[in-house]
Design a protein that fits this description.
Elements: E1 5-11, H1 15-26, H2 28-35, E2 38-45, E3 62-64, H3 68-71, E4 78-81, H4 88-98, E5 102-105, H5 108-125, E6 129-130, H6 141-148, E7 154-160, H7 163-175, H8 179-188, H9 197-200, H10 203-217, E8 219-220, E9 227-228, H11 236-244, E10 247-258, E11 261-272, E12 284-291, E13 295-302, H12 306-322, E14 337-338, E15 348-358, H13 363-373, E16 378-383, E17 391-398, E18 401-402, H14 403-414, E19 419-428
Parallel strand pairs: 1-2, 1-4, 2-3, 4-5, 5-6, 8-14, 9-11, 11-19
Antiparallel strand pairs: 7-10, 7-12, 10-11, 12-13, 15-17, 15-18, 15-19, 16-17
Helix pairs in contact: 1-12, 4-5, 5-10, 7-8
The structure holds NADP nicotinamide-adenine-dinucleotide phosphate.
């Protein structure tokens, strides 16, 4: 090993790994001036070493399909995990830490599911496990929470964390497209995977939210306790109605802190058009953080892509090379305890509903009565003569109401003989 260089091994040579390699090669002078050392890619682990690749690193870099060629190489100091998923990636991260290597990963799924285990192992071995690229791609959100805002109580954190879902909703809104057509465009442009489930059902955003909660509060918020609603049932009619009321629909990931308890979820919401998050369109990501010292701040940028994500991974590699001690989660102990969760029934917000009802006298009064019995106070009602079969849409915007009451009311209303089941409901961001 050259004295003024650090050897790294990269696991995976897909989108992010090629972006990282291009930056390490193309920005080598800047990197050297900042570190006084070169970053040398020694080995790249892939699934298929015979695969034809558009971009290749210099010939000195060895390609392998054996994990041990990276994990057991004493010259490799830093392992960069860019495979994805939770099986091989988890095994590679564990083996690397046990071999006393520092690890950088962009993998939100493995950290959301096995973060506690991996961070504790890294703490025991005194190695770094850094993950700037795991949330928000190129946006430096991890370091911001770990360091820059570390003296604040974070009161809330609201993010548009999935570029694919945001692109689809933007297309549906701007070009008045149905969901399936907008999804197809996202797939054709390479924003959405062939199997887009993780993105459109909110799971990817949920993984990222779990990581942000860990960084902001030092707590583990289990995936099965998060409210997770995706965008696959979003109807263009509701996007149109929301616009008429002055809102836009976005998939958000949100956590609120109330007196020691947390409440978090991923769901589509109506956002007032003048709200800063309403302006985040297409594949972009943004995170709005409210700290009790700093007040509100927002980070905005490209949430995915080879070079933006590679830039975040590179920043982790450089931080490790500079550091002599490793703080992985930003908390004194890397043991992340389970969060105390505030139940839904104790929180409230304004709501949007669309009922499909038979057009006959007295219907609105019955709906309003059921809501009134549950302390749901109506702010606006619009009834349209746009019939679908024998039903017409009725849209209600409510004042603040508790989510439990809202769910109970929808359940009761959907059972009425003159209502078509499947009432559409969205929270309104306030
Ligand atoms: N793409 C983005 O913009 C982005 C943004 C933020 C975070 N991330 C995260 O970054 C990670 C990598 O994403 P990516 O988009 O770069 O993935 P990708 O393009 O699908 O590349 C995955 C790479 O891993 C290799 N691989 C897969 N299974 C393997 C195995 N069993 N053993 C060895 N190598 C294996 C593949 O090898 P072959 O080349 O031989 O098939 C491929 O090179 C994921 O965790 C992802 O969530 C991605």
């Amino acid at each position: 090993m050259e004295k003024n260089s650090v050897n790294i091994g990269i696991a995976g040579f897909g989108t992010v790994a090629t972006g990282l390699t291009k930056l390490i090669l193309g920005n080598s002078e800047i990197i050297y001036r900042r570190l006084g050392k070169k970053i040398k890619i020694k080995t790249i682990l892939v699934k298929d070493i015979n695969k034809k690749r558009d971009f290749l690193p210099p010939e000195s870099v060895k390609f392998t399909d054996k994990i041990d060629d990276i994990v057991n190489d004493p010259e490799i100091e830093i392992v960069v995990e860019l495979i994805g998923g939770t099986t091989v990636a988890r095994e590679l991260i564990k083996k690397s830490i046990l071999a006393k290597k520092h690890v950088v990963t962009a993998n939100k799924a493995v950290l959301a599911e096995y973060g506690n285990e991996l961070f504790q192992l890294a703490r025991l071995q005194n190695t770094a496990l850094y993950f700037e690229a795991s949330v928000g791609g190129g946006i430096p959100i991890i370091q911001t929470l770990k360091e820059n805002l570390s003296g604040n109580q974070i009161i809330s954190l609201t993010g548009i964390l999935n570029g694919t879902a945001n692109f689809i909703l933007s297309k549906m809104s701007q070009e008045k497209l149905p969901f399936e057509q907008a999804l197809k465009i996202a797939q054709d442009r390479g924003y959405a995977e062939a199997d887009p489930t993780l993105d459109i059902e909110g799971i990817d955003a949920a993984h990222k939210l779990i990581i942000l909660i860990m960084l902001a509060y030092g707590k583990n918020y289990p995936l099965d306790k998060l409210t997770i609603e995706g965008i696959s049932k979003t109807d263009p009619y509701d996007i149109k109605m929301a616009e008429e009321f002055g809102y836009t629909i976005k998939l958000i990931a949100k956590v609120k802190y109330r007196g020691g308890d947390l409440q978090a979820g991923v769901y589509p919401v109506l956002i007032p058009k003048k709200h800063i998050l309403a302006k985040v369109d297409g594949p972009f990501n943004a995170i709005l953080i409210e700290g009790n010292g700093v007040g509100p701040i927002m980070l905005y940028g490209q949430g995915a892509g080879d070079l933006p994500t590679g830039s975040a991974v590179l920043s982790d590699i450089m931080s490790i090379i500079r550091s002599t001690s490793y703080n992985n989660t930003g908390f004194y102990s890397d043991n992340i305890e389970e969060a105390s969760i505030l139940e839904d029934k104790y929180t409230s917000c304004c709501h949007y509903f669309r009922f499909q009802v038979e057009d006959r006298p007295g219907v609105l009064a019955i709906l309003a009565g059921i809501m009134g019995e549950r302390n749901i106070s109506i702010a606006q009602v619009v009834q349209r003569q746009e019939k679908i079969g024998k039903y017409v849409p009725v849209v209600f915007l409510t004042h603040r109401a508790q989510i439990k009451n809202i769910k109970d009311a929808i359940e009761e209303i959907d059972k009425l003989s003159f209502v078509m089941p499947g009432t559409k409901h969205y929270r309104i961001l306030n």
